[in-house]
Amino acid sequence: MGSGVIGDVDTVEYLIQAFCIDNNVLKGFGLLRQVLEDGFVPSNEIIGELCKRRMQHEGFRIFNDLKDRGYALDRVMYTTMIHGLCKMKWIGEARKFWFEMVHKGIVPNEYTYNAFIYGLCRIGNLKEAKELYNEMCCKGYKETTVSCNIMIKGLCLRGRTEEAHVFFQEMAEKGIARDIITYNSLIQGFCKEGKIDESINLLAELLEKGMQPSAATYTALIEKLCEIGDVDEAKELWEDMQNRGVEPAVCTRDFIITRLSNKGYVAEGMEWLAAMLRRNLKPQKQTFERLIQCLSQGDKLDEAILVLDYMFSIGYTLRECICHSLVDKLCEQNSDHVETCLGGILQKDTAAFEDYVVVVIHFCMKNIIQRGFRIFNDLKDRGYALDRVMYTTMIHGLCKMKWIGEARKFWFEMVHKGIVPNEYTYNAFIYGLCRIGNLKEAKELYNEMCCKGYKETTVSCNIMIKGLCLRGRTEEAHVFFQEMAEKGIARDIITYNSLIQGFCKEGKIDESINLLAELLEKGMQPSAATYTALIEKLCEMGDVDEAKELWEDMQNRGVEPAVCTHDFIITGLSNKGYVAEGMEWLAAMLRRNLKPQKQTFERLIQCLSQGDKLDEAILVLDYMFSIGYTLRECICHSLVDKLCEQSSNHVETCLGGILQKDTTAFEVF
What we know:
Strand content: under 5%
Number of strands: 0
Number of helices: 39
Helix content: over 70%
């Protein structure tokens, strides 16, 4: 490679990072080795990228190549390498870099010490960690909250809570501030060892000091109390957490429900479960399973089926042993009760079709091809008469995975056996054909279904409308829509949403607005999906004012917007030059703990930078890094160029401020 490439250093670094991001790490290294021959010197950012990609052999080779060429590797680069290696628990390699930098006369600072101590604690080498900690102090670096927290956390993870508690007490004696992380680490350590009284005392102490506990403070305590059977005290802590405005972790509710179930308080456990579901929180799979087990053992089968209904509706499957137990219980009462109960669930939740067959035939269709086919064929070999429900289930599952060829085989097999497809079978296969865009065959099958005497329903029409809209055939979809009214077929919110989304996709915004007005006039309750497509398209077209009006209407109707809706409006405002208002919307998202998309941050930073609002751009960049995003290199260069135009010192000052708040962004800087 000639010097022409080396003349554009930015392009070289951009290409290397692009290869890394695209998981073509070896190509990235190949390019780097090639340009090193021309005297290219990688930046700290590139070194950080190599560390993050965990390509240790190539990374070391490049590092050594740089040394061989006389490039002076500084403390930042060594600390970056040590930090990355310690995160991956490669302590042996981290140690080599440590001694190498010391041998070169590069003095480790507190960040280097903390990075290595953290790594030693992670692998449980507490003896060396403590020795290094003492060495750091002897070198004149002050003990800090961060350094003490690393040691306390490391000791607690290895069950050495007494030593951790000594560290904790010495912090007060030395005037080192103890933060919520300090208390949480020790509380979690004590709970892990069953020292519940010590944990409770620590909670009381931090509250007495006026500190605000976090969800993690309570979670370990509640989990341990539930584990030892003291569910009443766990509920008291729950109440205290609620009163202090601390939002509990979802798993905290799971602990309480499981313990209530184990204690026999299944009715109360169901109340807690219902409260979770009302708040759209997702319980753990084992929470459902334990509650179903306890209800089944207590012969409360209607309640068990109800919980099973909820469990399937959010996408879980049931372990086979619990399936057998529940079906056995149902069969003890009435052999027909199995299908009756599960049929009632299926009527309410068609999306969970396969899971109910799991209960009926006692197998899991998690891997439908490898396992489902094997069991299906095994049942046939054993002489079992596979019925329409089982065939429909297989066809439906295959169509969901777009394996239409296999679904077609099952269709013809059942017809050859004299099993007549019903409206559910037709709808399952039509749905699959629509998914792969085979609308010609889908329409033919739809017409065949109607000719067989099966009535058109809201579900069947919705499948066709959705399929047509996905392929840009909105005019045909609209004909279906109009014919539904003429034929007396009810149009639901899914019908309207499918057509609204289709029209928006094609830029037919007026037609979409008219459909929204129509469904509101009919007294229907719109969903977030109703508004999302409209707001996205309006923002894309630059009509951000009308998008905000729709947002207000959505809020007034009590519809919770999808997170991405905020992103569309922020981007729309930024593109129109209303960056101040865009920042207000961003701040509102962050206050609600909503995570904006990466491109939302980037567009806002671009617009702020272009308008010379650099302080605001750095503030947005701070937030961006704090939630784990990195900035595209082209935007990074543009921002740094702007900063350098004003003051060369402003770059380090601003980015240093971000680094202080977001140590996880170390490699990026």
